[in-house]
Design goal:
25 strands, flat
């Protein structure tokens, strides 16, 4: 039977500034474990895990061809496309649909100021987030930042007397060590399940023959029961320290069947620290195409002195790897002393560093072990810090349009462009006063709507363009394309 990757909630790492660097400590020996170890770990963590509900307003179904926008009700367009001109009709007032719950997940309190880590897929697409603590207090949460590449998100609530789960060291975890999964499966709050670490540095896409995805995958695999609603919850050791964020299960039917996966804190720390400091993750790249070493590859390429590691299939121009002297056929076996036996391990190690950092890289070339220093770069081939995407880049402000003005212009919704300065909006030809009604097929009624669409475009892998439709205060309708690319 074909297996599918299913997130366990809805669909399917510099953070010492927040909670201090974790202190390495030995695992509790399994031979001396007692019932009290499990009880103490459970009692010390359940109050630090929250329920996260996401809400959104259902989209109103529009005209199938043109989305019901008044821009396309113009007689000229009807005539041009073969229709018959008709008299403009006064739009009917429709009752605004109410928000409804679209997702349920978990989150982990990592700071007394109210910062919570969860999964990106738990908060994605939400217009409102509601966080419920273990003592049944409810709070609305704001999104501080997200990172789709690692499926992590940071949200924040304003609440007193919060219980923080201390950060542990996922690197010191041992296969066979006991861990607890704490979360809200199927809405059953503060549920605790136990299991052992089944494997580390697990790449699910490779295991499911899904072809490696674009995200960073180096999971802790456990057999602690995890189900829908657990996503974003805590994976803790028996000292009650956070060692991972539960993210996914491997299942043929959508329910737990013995394999669950968590993002290690080695990655969580870096992502959280970057989001808090820069607003976005500072991601480092070697600039190589890689293949995992297998017996077949060893035979095909005639590799000597190595049977594990990551094979360099291509070295890109203007990359860290080329500058350091790496070549096609090299096999990477360690970074800063940490052994690399597969692609997941390489991803996890690189995820700890930022552009400008220098690492010691060990590789095998023609059977000989070599070492070199590599100064890491970003995806653009330099060491500059990445700036978080912001509406400020557009070079204007947005204001909500009054009901009176909407009625005068015979439109249902709109956001007015004001204070245009040099920037992308001006470059597109938009002038002060223009009222945006639709962006990329989605109606906009508030500046928040524009921000939501903008962020979605910047996160996507599609062309970075805002296709804008709207009307000027004179009644003249217009269409613009705002390029958001580099």
């Amino acid at each position: 039977m074909k297996m599918n990757l299913i997130a366990s909630a809805a669909l399917v790492a510099g953070a010492s500034m927040l909670y201090g660097a974790p202190e390495a400590s030995a695992a509790v020996p399994n031979s001396v474990l007692t019932q009290s170890d499990f009880i103490n770990a459970s009692e010390s963590t359940v109050n630090g895990v929250v329920s996260v509900k996401s809400y959104a307003t259902p989209q109103i179904r529009q005209s199938p061809m043109y989305g019901g926008d008044p821009f396309f009700n113009d007689p000229f367009f009807e005539y041009f496309f073969g229709g018959q001109p008709r008299q403009r009709q006064q739009p009917q007032q429709q009752e605004q649909p109410k928000q409804r719950q679209i997702g349920l997940g978990s989150g982990v309190i990592v700071n007394k100021d109210g910062y919570i880590v969860t999964n990106n897929h738990v908060v994605e697409g939400a217009e409102r987030l509601e966080v419920t603590l273990n003592d049944n207090r409810n709070f609305n949460a704001t999104v501080v930042g997200t990172d789709a590449t690692t499926d992590l998100a940071i949200i924040k609530i304003d609440a007193p007397d919060l219980h923080v789960i201390p950060m542990g060291d996922s690197d010191s975890l041992k296969v066979g060590e006991w861990v607890l999964a704490v979360g809200n499966p199927f809405g059953f709050t503060s549920s605790v399940t136990a299991g052992i670490v089944s494997a580390k540095a697990r790449n699910i896409s490779t295991s499911t023959r899904g072809g490696g995805g674009r995200g960073i995958e180096s999971y802790i695999q456990t057999d602690a029961a995890v189900n829908s609603g657990n996503s974003g919850g805590a994976l803790v050791n028996l000292r009650g320290e956070l060692v991972g964020i539960n993210t996914a299960i491997y299942s043929s039917n959508g329910s737990y069947v013995g394999c669950s996966f968590a993002i290690p804190t080695s990655i969580v720390n870096k992502v959280m620290g970057d989001i808090m400091q820069y607003g976005t993750v500072q991601r480092a790249y070697l600039g190589i195409s890689i293949v995992e070493v297998t017996p077949e590859l060893v035979s095909e390429e005639g590799l000597k002195g190595v049977n594990q590691g990551v094979y360099v299939a291509e070295v890109q121009d203007r990359s860290s790897a080329r500058e350091a002297g790496l070549k096609k056929g090299d096999v990477i076996v360690a970074i800063n002393g940490a052994h690399i036996t597969n692609m997941a391990m390489l991803q996890e190690q690189l995820a700890k560093y930022s552009p400008g950092d220098t690492i010691n890289l060990e590789y095998v070339r023609e059977g000989k072990h070599e070492t070199c220093k590599v100064k890491l770069r970003n995806s653009k081939g330099d060491t500059a810090l990445t700036k978080a995407a912001s509406l400020m880049d557009l070079g204007c402000a947005f204001t909500k349009v009054s009901e009176e003005r909407l009625n005068q212009l015979e439109i249902r919704n709109g956001v007015q462009v004001t204070g245009i300065e040099d920037g992308r909006v001006k470059d597109a030809g938009i002038r002060d006063g223009f009222i945006i009604t639709v962006i990329n097929g989605q109606r906009v009624a508030s500046p928040d709507d524009i921000e939501t669409i903008y962020k979605a475009i910047m996160k996507s892998d599609d062309d970075k363009v805002m296709y804008v439709k709207g009307v000027y205060p004179t009644g003249k309708q217009a269409f613009y394309a705002i390029s958001l690319g580099d």
